[in-house]
Amino acid sequence: MLFLMCAPSERPSKEPGWSRLQLTVVILVPFCLLCVGILLGVCIVQGHHCAWKQDPEEPPDDQMLMSPDKCLKDLIYDMSTSGSGSGLPLLVQRTIARTIVLQETIGKGRFGEVWRGKWRGEDVAVKIFSSRDERSWFREAEIYQTIMLRHENILGFIAADNKGIRLTNNGSWTQLWLVSEYHEHGSLYDYLNRYTVSMEGMVILALSVASGLAHLHMEIIGTQGKPAIAHRDLKSKNVLVRRNGTAVIADLGLAVKHDSSTNTIDIPSNHRVGTKR
Predict the structure, then answer these.
(1) 82 band by pLDDT with thresholds 50, 70 and 90
(2) Residue of 233, 251, 259, 266 marked catalytic
(3) Which is more confident, 244 or 55?
(4) H-helix segments, 146-233
(5) Would you place residue 2 in the very low, low, confident or very high pLDDT band (cuts 50, 70, 90)?
(6) How many whole angstroms separate alpha carbon 180 and alpha carbon 252?
(7) What's the rounded mean pLDDT across residues 99-117?
(8) Closest residue by Cα to residue 171 from 131, 116, 134
(9) Which pLDDT belongs to residue 234?
């Protein structure tokens, strides 16, 4: 009994656990990795933001998008032979529009104003719509970019773009641009008021207008065909005179397209037709 009482009692076995150094490592290493990951993510996001951020008034570098020696005739030729025939890529259109310098007002209408502008030293016509006429702008740009619409007696479309204008009181408003070929003689209406046309000149003008109208009306059937188009506002003010005495049909904002497969016409929502007399 005495032996039993004096025998040393067994100590409980030490439970396995983490040392202070191990706990420090386990806590600090994931924390440091997390901080490094967050910093890398922020740097990547900032890098992409700086690479793509661009002031809306600063045009992209057009030298990277098109050859510097290309003129308007080359661009229009590219539109005609690119396969689709529906115009240049939107980025190129945006580049062209934002590198145009407006020179002077050459006309006004219900939509807004027409300006003569300069692009790479060449004259272009810029039709400027107000933001409240966005539907008209979009409709006319859509018609001009119809596949296979390009024709020598239809106004040569170049680009469409929307351009933000900053005001002095920190406000802004949007201009909607349609860029096309510039014809110094202006409309047929103005031309006939300034000049006397010979019989031969009259026949050339009439034939070119009829040729352009026939191309509009004609349906081209194919994999990428052209629908029949009705102008609906043909008048002397919507026909422009070239330097060589031929004419081109312009102002396609009220035009409609006919879908022969469904026998339907895409009449725009504004329901305007022609010009009031």
Answers:
(1) low
(2) 233
(3) 244
(4) 188-194, 199-217
(5) very low
(6) 12
(7) 88
(8) 131
(9) 94
The tens digit of pLDDT for each residue in 168-185 reads 566 667 789 999 999 999
Mean pLDDT of the region 232-241 = 94
Q: Amino acid identity, residue 48?
A: H
Burial of 182 (0-12, 13-18, 19+ CB in 10 A): buried
Listed by start position, the domains of the chain span: 63-265
The residues, ordered by sequence, that sit 6+ positions from 12 with a Cβ below 8 Å of its Cβ are: none
**Contact assessment for residue 164 and residue 57, using Cβ atoms and an 8 Å cutoff:** yes
Residue 45, token pair as written in the block: 């996001």
- Determine whether the annotation assigns residue 118 to a binding site: no
Q: Any idea of the CA torsion for 184, 190, 196, 199, to the nearest 10 degrees?
A: 90
Among 89, 80, 110, 114, which residue's Cα sits nearest to residue 226?
Answer: 80
CATH 3.40.50.300 at 63-265, yes or no: no
55 is catalytic: no
Long-range contacts of 269-277 (CB under 8 A, 24+ apart): 269/135, 270/135, 270/136, 273/232, 273/233, 274/232, 274/233, 275/233, 275/235
Q: Which amino acid is at 19?
A: S
- 120's torsion region: left (phi>0), alpha (psi -120 to 50) or beta? left
